[in-house]
Amino acid sequence: MTEIARRTTDVLVLGSGGAGLLGALHAKAGTPDLRVTVAVKGLLGKSGCTRMVQGGYNVALAAGDSAERHFMDTLDGGKWLNDQDLAWTLVTVAQTRIRELENRWGCFFDRNPDGTIHQKAFAGQTFDRTVHKGDLTGIEIINRLAEQTWARGIERMEEHRALALLPSRDRSRLAGVLMVDVRTGALVLVQAKAVLLATGGGPTMYTYHTPSGDKSCDGMAMALRAGLALRDMEMVQFHPTGVLAGPGTRMTGTIIEEGLRGAGGYLLGGDGRRFMDRYDPRGERATRDIVSRSMYREMLAGNVNEAGGLWIEMGHLGPANVVRQFKGMVERCADMGFDLAGGRVPVVPTAHYMMGGVVFRADGSTALPGLFAAGEDTGGVHGANRLGGNGVANSTVFGGIAGDSMAAFAPRHGAIEEPCPAALDAALSLAHAPFARRPASLTPIRDALHALMWEKAGILRDAAGLAEAARGLDALEAALDDAGVDGGARAFNLAWQDWLNLRSLLLVSRAIVTAAVAREESRGAHWREDFPQTDSEAAGLAATLVTLAPDGRIALGRQPVTYSRIRPGESLLPAAAE
Q1: Angle 259-261-262 (CA atoms, 0-180°, nearest 5)?
Q2: For residue 386, what is the DSSP state?
Q3: To which H or E segment does residue 160 belong?
Q4: Given Cys at both, which of 70, 111, 173, 290 links 286, Cβ 3.0 to 4.6 Å?
Q5: Which sign, positive or negative, has the C-alpha torsion 471, 474, 478, 484?
Q6: What is each CA distance from 428 to 109, 433, 435, in whole angstroms?
Q7: pTM
Q8: CA-to-CA distance for 286 and 341, rounded, in angstroms?
């Protein structure tokens, strides 16, 4: 067995976004004597998706709104595929979590003239309930949570990448996590009594995508390899408005936030005319799945600008007003040479969020004792489509809950266990695999993956395209198996990291495609051109489950949706509030 370094801690948190940092803070506050360690692929407070959140945080606070109304909007947006207990936890705990963020952790959100928290419009909702800090809400939340983490004696393992979740010797619980120290290339085994999986999602397997390049669905891939089930993996959300900044720049795909459309921004075709009213009576304020699908149809029809995309236009709202409301967006577009306040910005739908993920319970626990999960690594909260503004609420709500659960679990039920030797050997073999092969460029594999998933398993799908995607993924996995990297210097070995990224992305892409083939209907973010009916319950609504079989194939299962609180067609709201 390869010699590796070892560390122990009571609670290990993987990821430093909203879910990870709230999990660490709650675990430390719940049982102060616990050793809590946050491990992050990048730098704490400077990486992850929560920091990139522009729009805001959905929560029912104002007169006329209610948790019941937020709940109904969430189910309607999710096309009733949501786990209703998880969705109810989201909308109710968000009401206390938003005050906790301000009053306990120091976040500051925009105010109305009377001092109440300002809430703006976001698409797909029946009430303006999105709390925000200008259009840089994520930076505000992560800056404050990172400060609090540093101040509370929580240990940090920065630039440490998680490679595998390791079961105990008898496989009865989680023993720890194999990691690589990116700065040195050394492998580290961290044994812990409780682990929080909060690495985020990151559908960067598509040509146009919003997450940063370090996001590669590692958490979902590790969960599959550890034998856990994922649900709703066919449900990949495409944000309607990613900047089309041109080839050769990572700025392409960067979000133009949803609040622009909520405030009255127009989407225009290449002909300079609005088109959304032809697709949905809500126009630009329809849900993300509908808007992205409509935009893609315009692109397929050839109604595109010279960049091959569409336009967003805000000038009719008054340039000064746009600058005041969306200062961050205006400045970001200006950096790319576009005038958001008074002109037009080229946009394209862009892969943004995974509604699917690890099956978990409302207390954050999973089927593997000792492993907890929160945030975009998990499935069930959003169903078939996530409302804009529900994402950071999901992370902070369930991150805090998982932290509370780990604070109770670790002292009572936790133990430092030795990992299963076979599982550890398998993880080490995967980590070392590329060094045994002749170094080769990974760029062709990555580019081919982007094109394959975008064209065959993206916004519009059908059986023939998905079959082609499955065959293409098999070929790309074979190509990656043959591609090696130079192991002469493993410290900051970016080729090695890229190989590991592709290994995770290919596995999760197979899960997406397999689940998409199985769902022979159109629902939410999953649109089958050969099965265009949507919202049907004729065959009994069920979540698609995927697991990794011993032979390396993706195995399928079904989990009937239980209407624990309300059935489709019913409402929790009084008639006057409908």
Answers
A1: 55
A2: P
A3: strand 160-167
A4: 290
A5: positive
A6: 45, 8, 12
A7: 0.95
A8: 22
Left if phi > 0, otherwise alpha if psi is -120 to 50, otherwise beta: which for 554?
Answer: beta
* Strand, helix or coil for residue 6: strand
Indicate if the pLDDT at residue 574 is higher than 90: no
Burial class (CB in 10 A: 0-12, 13-18, 19+), 369: middle
Q: How far is CA 527 from the centre of its chain?
A: 19
| 325 or 50, greater pLDDT | 325
Category of 158 on φ-ψ map: left (φ > 0), alpha (ψ -120 to 50) or beta? beta
Pairing mode, strands 36-40 and 5-14: parallel
Cβ neighbors of 348 (< 8 A, separation 6 or more) are 208, 242, 244, 253, 295, 299, 308, 309, 310
Q: Is the CA virtual torsion 520, 526, 532, 536 positive or negative?
A: positive
CA distances from 4 to 77, 188, 189, 571 (A): 47, 6, 7, 56
Q: How many CB atoms lie within 10 A of CB 110?
A: 17
User: Among residues 531, 410, 485, which one has the least CA distance to residue 10?
Assistant: 410
- Pair 218, 504: CB distance under 8 Å: yes
| Placement of tokens 């999960």 in the chain | 373
Count Cα atoms within 13 angstroms, Cβ side, for 44.
23
Catalytic residues: 239, 261
Instruction: Please check whether residue 228 is in contact with residue 219, taking contact to mean a CB–CB distance below 8 angstroms.
Output: no
Could you identify the residue written with the tokens 């698409």? 123
pLDDT, tens digit, for every residue of 130-162?
A: 999 987 888 999 999 999 999 999 999 999 999
Count of other CB atoms within 10 angstroms of residue 278: 10
Measure the CA–CA gap between 429 and 226, rounded to whole angstroms.
15
pLDDT exceeds cutoff 70 at 2 = no
Burial class (CB within 10 angstroms; exposed 0-12, middle 13-18, buried 19+) of 272:
exposed
Cα of first residue to Cα of last residue in the chain, in angstroms, is: 63
